């Protein structure tokens, strides 16, 4: 049987101005490259992306299966999510963050918090509006800003400042055109946690400069000593929104369940955009999510026991690469500075092309991350140990033990 090559098509339309210089998401293209390497026989170990490999709790899966087996759960759903899910989010916020939210008006379920980043940007930005984006930080903050017609304005985070923004320096630069400031604590990719008083300082800063402050908060439960919400600060709802997600701490990344929390007036504006983009979330997923939100502290304790074990090996990998790091990191990754004379991209290329181990270069998160690399904790200890062996780490450990 003859095969034919795919036809080459020249599009009849040019790329929209809105798409501009926005590029394909890094992990989209990199995972495609890894798939090609594997197709050629390479056994690539992927320590890059933060997609939990552990399953959700058994009762969550049982709730999905039971609800999906019913005949009355397959139709369109409300754009604001079912009442049970909104109430579950409200109870979860009260139990863990000590924040009281009206389930009817102050919580908007989302198909993942990444969707919320785009919705917020489209709902509040006009062409020319500036948005403060952390460097290093999640690349979607920039792409959503640019797609919405806004102007991305980065603020640098530095290790010697605890990866926190210098609010005084920002104020001195002039903020008259800034409409939104994205923050993300616990911070990805650096693993920095916000000090106890820092959220209050951020709220005062946002109020003074009339900036909408948005905390992207998917890592609140991962290897943290205590969980924090920006909305716990008195007066926060006047100037702040918060995104939370079930992707990380509930092991439901592919289920696409998140929430936007904040004042009703802000959420109603976001809903005006969101309701034109989707037709509601699958009801069995919502019902399963309500069960996930009801999990107790023992669930999170068990999860973090696993991640601590994995982090031990991930740190050994960083040692093998000659990287340096802070031991008090939180979240789902290990972030480390590369040795002098190299950078994150070259370090990651050597790991991938010489040792078949994929780790993430810090430069994809902004210029301030170019001398860093990141390892995900979303692989079993055995896979991390295999990566350590491939990179020569176990041999180094044995040599030290033998006094060589």
Account of the protein in words:
By secondary structure, the chain is of the alpha/beta class. It has two domains: 26-52 and 298-394, Aspartate Aminotransferase, domain 1, CATH 3.90.1150.10; 58-295, Type I PLP-dependent aspartate aminotransferase-like (Major domain) (Aspartate Aminotransferase, domain 2). It is 39% helix and 13% strand. The chain is built from 13 helices and twelve strands. The protein has helices spanning 26-39, 58-68, 83-97, 113-124, 139-147, 167-173, 198-209, 264-274, 283-293, 297-320, 344-355, 381-390, 393-401; strands at 45-46, 107-110, 130-135, 151-156, 178-183, 212-216, 240-245, 258-262, 333-337, 357-358, 360-361, 372-376. The chain has a seven-stranded mixed beta sheet, sandwiched between helices. It has a three-stranded antiparallel beta sheet with strand order 9-12-11, covered by helices on one side. α5 links the parallel β3 and β4 (151-156). α3 (83-97) packs parallel to α9 (283-293), α4 (113-124) crosses α8 (264-274) and α10 (297-320) runs parallel beside α12 (381-390). The longest helix is centred in the last third of the chain and has 24 residues, at 297-320. The radius of gyration is 22 Å and the shape is globular. The N and C termini lie far apart (61 Å). Residues 397-404 have low confidence and may be disordered. Its cofactor is pyridoxal 5'-phosphate.
Short summary:
The chain has helices at residues 26-39, 58-68, 83-97, 113-124, 139-147, 167-173, 198-209, 264-274, 283-293, 297-320, 344-355, 381-390, 393-401, and strands spanning 45-46, 107-110, 130-135, 151-156, 178-183, 212-216, 240-245, 258-262, 333-337, 357-358, 360-361, 372-376.
